[in-house]
TrEMBL record:
It comes from Cellulomonas persica. CDD domains: YjeQ_EngC (cd01854). GO terms for cellular component: cytoplasm. This is Small ribosomal subunit biogenesis GTPase RsgA. Zn(2+) binds at residues 289, 294, 296, 302. GO terms for biological process: ribosomal small subunit biogenesis. Signal peptide: none annotated.
Amino acid sequence: MTSGQWRVVRAERTAVLVVPAGPSGDPGDTAEAAAEPVQAPRADDGLADSGDGRPEPLRAGLARDGLADSDEGRTTVAVGDLVALDPESGLVATVLPRRSALVRDTAGRTSHVQVLAANVDVVLVVEHLDPDPDLGRVERLLTLAWRSGAQPVVVLTKADLVPDPHGMAQDVAAAALAVDVHVVSAATGEGLEPVRALLGPGVTLVVVGPSGAGKSTLVNALAGREIMATGERRQDGRGRHTTTHRELVPLPGGAMLIDTPGLRAVGLVADADALDHTFADVAELAARCRFADCSHTREPGCAVLAALDGGELDQRRFASWRKLEREAAYQERRVDARLAAAEKARWKRITQAYHRGQRGAGAPRP
Ligand SMILES: Nc1nc2c(ncn2[C@@H]2O[C@H](COP(=O)(O)OP(=O)(O)OP(=O)(O)O)[C@@H](O)[C@H]2O)c(=O)[nH]1
Ligand SMILES: [Zn+2]
């Protein structure tokens, strides 16, 4: 460690502690704590070399509370973060502002978001063509991606297993507005080039999608080597549940992949702004309803109902939007409740401090 000089490096890996699944049984509920050490690449530009000429990672400790300073107060270091190391202690001192962040709303009464991956450019939403793609799931994952601030791209896998992959892709594209949809087969190599073209130098991507969609197979095909264990190899059947860390993996060409077990089983809670992105068509219709607070159930002058009647908006898409919208509203109320509780606690502390001061001084303060 060169002393006396601040260095900015990228958090390449944060050790996480995995505990047994929560009451819901969802492995995404596992409590994960960023524990020492955080590893970061040694390069001063904060970027890891691609390929095998990788520099030895630099290990940097965290402060006792496991957090670092940021614009938004003390925060957990996430994979992909740019962090400044304190020249004196060598500890991670500051997390630089994130240009994007993939977040998950953690379960439980304390409704906090957890950053799964920071400074991501591209979110590859991977869905299989066989069995049939689940459009609702694609919409959900696109919402997660839009919320992060990164660009989503849909990749439909297993094209070799269906007779008309491109016809199916059209249906998916109708549910993925303003998003490129690629059709690939890892088995034949079909369609991989346009996906590979996304992986420019310095581009950070994450891959999301259901188990068995072919995420690992796709990434390995892109990388030209095995960097993610695929379903076939994971004989113990425990796979992602036993992954104990998140990693930034260099790909050929200088792109980086963030692989996190949390992303594979992500419990996304929708977010209102991101929903307007995913469902721009529905949002546009809703803006034309006669009443600003239209519930699109029976109001006169409802543009959404009219579009459903006229067949311009399909029932499936409307139902999918409705479901995610309810989730977003519920989540918003939880966040509000948490903020209200925090505010109440703050005032309680202030009042208590005031009373203590009064007892001490014997007279009220101004
Ligand atoms: N025929 C065919 N099979 C594929 C293709 N892509 C993946 N598979 C197979 O699908 C299975 C699941 O692939 P994985 O890459 O492990 O899926 P995954 O999305 O990483 O799954 P998790 O790690 O559980 O999240 C494996 O048996 C792959 O060989 C493809 O393009 N064509
Ligand atoms: Zn309406």
